[in-house]
């Protein structure tokens, strides 16, 4: 047991979080290895923030067990929190203080000596590209700069485990890539990360493994590339066509199909043999003179997996309520 | 949003306090205060100073004596207490609510080794600090008016401290229940203003109608005024001990409630 657990930064077993009678997180189990970047994906309300909050000891666990950095978070919250860095979904900086003061005040909560805090604060400002803003009052910063400061602030105690709840929401593309780059650097230095995000590209770039959640349960888990192969194959063929013809196209394509899904009037067909699928469908469409809006063949990505997994359950639940 | 009836859940449990970290929370607020204290302190002074002028010199012309004191002597020590009361209650209602609900400062702190109980105790400490500070500065003003008659007057810091603790606790209880800023209006209209007007600052409580004469006894302001006035005027006698004890007991009894209620409100 001990050898297994030492390598794990987070071990969640049958973790459940209820608000009243509503289960926001329902009996889920997962492990995050040391040095790994682990992603939590899922639509709004899936339970990502609820899980993150239990891990940093903010939100009490309803049932199950949760070990964080080899300790029970319920028993040793202070010791665990001393080794964590947290970027919450909502910024909670000190708006009246300057950027530098924010870092210094936060260092206090970790009992860092003043000179150490000062040194680290300056490193962090540099690392997050905020040096020029050191003396700016936080209230006057743009949303993206606040977000970067929030991330920088989470590094003040040189955490072993970073909990990042949508760290790049609201960042411009340049800043987002900058943050990705920094996160990769941290990972290379051995920092473990738990990341929630709605940017699938972010998950693909950063996460070694991820889970897809919906309504507090795990739909799927694995490595991003493996999930793509497993669920949608290599190619996606998008066809804009009225829903009445979807059935026809599906049956024509069936020999090559790995999966499919509808989004509005669009039909998306997934296949490992994209070229063949497109050519064969094209022939049949031409022969029957079907009216096609547009047609596009492209490589698949994590977003396809996400849409397929969460779309299925959304559709499933709609059918339930109708029936 | 939890039902307010649940906020008292587990009030008897021992709070999770690390005093060193509580001081860091206090220090955070102090640091923000030090950025704006000049403007703030001016405003908080102005009001009691206006009362002192209007009542002490204006109304005082018509009131010859109260219990053997000039009206200024009677009034000024009481305003020390009310100055502290207003400073603490504003801080721990509007400002604490801003930190808690709008800026989510509390959330940021508890993601570190700081516990929610540390945060709340830090807020109480800071509210108390502000009460004592503003009370003390007003005390200096009163001294400049020549009303301080005894070196033992400096002992008013003790009732000021106790009273400010109590008001911090009461304010934070209200803050934990408050759904929005508007609700603080009720706190001031229903609790703070009546205390200010009828707590023995402007006239002796013995002059209240017989049926409600007992009411001030239940308010912290009254007991603070009854200890501060004799200390300032050099007329302290053993009777003030009873008021001290009242303040000590009330400070202790009210303390667990803000800790529990804020914790239950924020941590779900
Ligand atoms: N304090 C609370 N009281 C009641 N219900 C809550 C509370 N916090 C969260 N919930 C509910 O729990 C569910 C999961 O919420 P959570 O914030 O974990 O979702 P999320 O996956 O982080 O969503 P998002 O992507 O929008 O941030 C939601 O249905 C939410 O309404
Ligand atoms: Mg969330």
Describe the overall structure.
The complex is a heterodimer of chains A (323) and B (268). Chain A is of the alpha/beta class. Chain A has twelve helices and 14 strands. In chain A, the strands form three sheets. Chain A has a six-stranded mixed β-sheet with strand order 6-7-8-3-9-10, sandwiched between helices. Chain A has a four-stranded antiparallel β-sheet with strand order 2-1-4-5. Chain A is elongated, with a radius of gyration of 23 Å. Mean pLDDT of chain A is 91; it is low at 318-323. With 268 residues, chain B is mainly α. Chain B has one domain (11-267). The radius of gyration of chain B is 19 Å and the shape is globular. Adenosine-5'-triphosphate (ATP) binds at residues 19, 24, 42, 44-50, 89 of chain A.
Summarize this structure briefly.
The complex is a heterodimer of chains A (323) and B (268). With 323 residues, chain A is of the alpha/beta class.
Topology readout:
The complex is a heterodimer of chains A (323) and B (268).
Chain A (H helix, E strand, L loop, with lengths): L1 H5 L1 E12 L2 E12 L3 E5 L6 H8 L7 E6 L2 E2 L4 H5 L2 E4 L11 H11 L4 H14 L15 H11 L7 E5 L7 H16 L3 E5 L3 H7 L2 E6 L2 E6 L1 H8 L3 E6 L5 H8 L3 E7 L2 E6 L2 H15 L5 E6 L2 H21 L1
Parallel strand pairs in A: 3-8, 3-9, 6-7, 7-8
Antiparallel strand pairs in A: 1-2, 1-4, 4-5, 9-10, 11-13, 11-14, 12-13
Helix pairs in contact in A: 4-5, 9-12
Chain B lengths: L18 H40 L12 H32 L2 H5 L6 H29 L12 H21 L6 H15 L21 H14 L6 H15 L1 H11 L2
Helix pairs in contact in B: 1-2, 1-4, 2-4, 2-5, 2-7, 4-5, 4-9, 5-7, 5-8, 5-9, 7-8
The complex binds adenosine-5'-triphosphate (ATP) and magnesium ion.
Strand percentage of chain B lies at under 5%
Q: Give the end-to-end Cα distance of chain B, rounded to a whole number of Å.
A: 9 Å
List low-confidence stretches of chain A. Answer: 318-323
CATH superfamily heading of the largest domain in chain A? P-loop containing nucleotide triphosphate hydrolases
Number of strands of chain A: 14
Gap between N and C termini of chain A: 47 Å
Under CATH at level 1, the class of the largest domain in chain A stands as Alpha Beta
Specify the biggest β-sheet of chain B.
Answer: none
**Total helical elements of chain A:** 12
Strand order of the largest sheet of chain A: 6-7-8-3-9-10
Give the fraction of residues assigned to helices of chain A: 25-40%
The arrangement of helices and strands of chain B along the chain is: HHHHHHHHH
What order do the helices and strands of chain A follow?
HEEEHEEHEHHHEHEHEEHEHEEHEH
Number of strands of chain B: 0
Q: What structural category characterises the helix and strand content of chain B? A: mainly alpha
Number of separate domains of chain B? 1
Q: What is the global morphology of chain A?
A: elongated
The CATH topology of the largest domain in chain A turns out to be: Rossmann fold
Q: Which distinct ligands sit in these coordinates?
A: adenosine-5'-triphosphate, magnesium ion
Query: Structural class, judged by helices and strands of chain A?
Result: alpha/beta
């Amino acid at each position: 047991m001990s050898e297994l657990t030492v390598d794990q930064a987070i071990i969640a077993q049958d973790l459940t979080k209820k608000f009243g009678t509503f289960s926001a997180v329902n009996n889920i189990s997962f492990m995050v290895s040391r040095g790994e970047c682990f992603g939590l994906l899922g639509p709004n309300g899936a339970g990502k923030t609820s899980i993150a909050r239990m891990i940093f000891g903010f939100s009490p666990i309803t049932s199950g067990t949760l070990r964080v950095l080899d300790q029970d978070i319920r028993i040793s919250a202070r010791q665990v929190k001393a080794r964590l860095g947290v970027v919450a979904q909502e910024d909670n900086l000190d708006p009246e203080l300057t950027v530098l003061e924010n870092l210094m005040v936060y260092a206090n909560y970790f009992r860092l000596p003043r000179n150490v805090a000062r040194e680290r604060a300056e490193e962090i400002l540099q690392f997050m590209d905020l040096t020029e803003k050191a003396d700016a009052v936080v209230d006057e910063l743009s949303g993206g700069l606040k977000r970067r400061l929030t991330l920088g602030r989470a590094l003040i105690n040189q955490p072993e485990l970073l909990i990042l709840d949508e760290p790049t929401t609201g960042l411009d593309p340049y800043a987002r890539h900058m943050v990705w780059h920094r996160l990769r650097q941290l990972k290379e230095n051995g920092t473990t990360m738990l990341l929630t995000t709605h940017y699938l590209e972010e998950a693909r770039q950063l996460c070694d493994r991820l889970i897809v959640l919906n309504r507090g349960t795990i739909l799927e888990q694995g490595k991003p590339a493996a999930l793509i192969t497993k669920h949608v194959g290599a190619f996606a063929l998008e066809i804009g066509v009225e829903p009445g013809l979807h059935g026809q196209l599906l049956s024509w394509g069936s020999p090559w199909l790995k999966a499919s899904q509808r989004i509005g009037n669009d039909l998306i067909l997934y296949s490992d043999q994209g070229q063949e699928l497109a050519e064969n469908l094209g022939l049949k469409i031409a022969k029957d003179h079907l009216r096609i809006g547009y047609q596009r063949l492209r490589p698949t990505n994590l977003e396809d997996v996400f849409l397929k997994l969460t779309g299925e359950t959304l559709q499933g639940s709609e059918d339930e309520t109708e029936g | 949003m939890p039902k307010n009836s649940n906020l008292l859940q587990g009030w008897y449990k021992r709070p999770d306090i690390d005093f060193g970290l509580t001081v860091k929370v206090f220090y955070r607020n102090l640091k923000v205060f030090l950025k704006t204290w000049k403007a703030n302190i001016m405003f908080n002074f102005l009001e009691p100073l206006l009362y002192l002028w209007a009542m002490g010199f204006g109304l005082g012309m018509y009131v010859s004596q109260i219990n053997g004191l000039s009206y200024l002597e009677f009034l000024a020590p009481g305003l020390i207490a009310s100055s502290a009361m207003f400073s603490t209650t504003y801080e721990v209602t509007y400002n604490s609510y801003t930190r808690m609900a709008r800026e989510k400062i509390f959330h940021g702190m508890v993601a570190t080794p700081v516990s929610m109980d540390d945060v709340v105790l830090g807020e109480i400490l800071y509210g108390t600090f502000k009460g004592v500070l503003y009370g003390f500065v007003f005390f200096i003003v009163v001294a400049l008016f020549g009303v301080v008659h005894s070196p033992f007057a400096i002992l008013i810091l003790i009732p000021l401290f106790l009273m400010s603790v109590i008001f911090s606790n009461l304010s934070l209880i209200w803050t934990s229940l408050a759904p929005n800023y508007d609700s603080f209006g009720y706190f001031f209209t229903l609790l703070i203003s009546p205390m200010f007007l009828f707590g023995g600052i402007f006239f002796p409580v013995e002059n209240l109608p017989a049926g409600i004469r007992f009411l001030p006894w239940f308010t912290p302001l009254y007991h603070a005024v009854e200890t501060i006035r004799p200390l300032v005027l050099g007329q302290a006698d053993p009777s003030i001990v009873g008021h001290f004890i009242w303040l000590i007991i009330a400070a202790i009894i009210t303390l667990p409630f803000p800790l529990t209620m804020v914790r239950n409100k924020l941590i779900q």
